[in-house]
Amino acid sequence: MIVLRQAVWAGIAALQRSAFAAVWAVLYFVAQFLMAFLNIDPVQYFIYAIALAAAVLLWIPATRVYSRGS
């Protein structure tokens, strides 16, 4: 389980340091723009999901380190 957590945090850190973070930021702002003009519920839920995923990937601290012994 610890290895899985380390892999997840390493993946998030890699996303934050790479061009993928820029892609997520663009998706977030596009989603915000579309939310201002589209009020169709299914579309809005999809856009909220994109915005939430972008926000989580961009704002989770990538500096968490787990010790190997625990």
Automatic annotation (TrEMBL):
Q: Which UniProt keywords apply?
A: Membrane, Transmembrane, Transmembrane helix
List the transmembrane segments. Answer: 21-40, 46-66
- Name-wise, this protein is Uncharacterized protein
Organism phylogeny: Bacteria, Bacillati, Actinomycetota, Actinomycetes, Micrococcales
